[in-house]
Predict the 3D structure of the following.
Amino acid sequence: MPNFAKFFSRQIVGMFSEFKIALKSMPIGTHEFEYRLDGQFFKEMESADIHDASLTVNLTVNRKSDFYEMAFVINGEITLLCDRCLDEMALDVDTEYDIVVKYGDAYNDESDEVLIIPESDNYFNVAHLIYDTVSLEVPMTHVHDEGDCNEDMSEMLRQHSASETDDQQDEDDAPIDPRWSELKKLTENN
């Protein structure tokens, strides 16, 4: 979890109030929560990649005597822009995330398994945990399957891309620095 989470969680206290869970007043036992996310959630989170969504988040909180086991199950679909043709593309999301939340002296998110929140916090807003979990499902590059890209854009890309034969021809025609020629002779002799 990023170190900015302390600042970020304080910023979203006013926003996303439906994601606030009253941990301190929660009785011992298992509690279920369900959230529906759409594009507005990611817009308010200022997501650069996720443009729309239709997700269901099922959260199970199991309160023990002095800690809370949280299990997130997120299913649905998000909409991204294809890096190749810039058209929208759907990406299925089916992920889970488990974390233990404890109270302590100060906020500490150094562990991926345990999150410590200040004793003074009566509520815990899970919006940033949900956002981070979904964001981790977004691949580094997102492109349509072969043949699914916008045909017009694909054609423009082909027209403006240098082909390998053009690149090779340019390399063959370019004058070679004599120093590189001498170095090349050394490697050819071995």
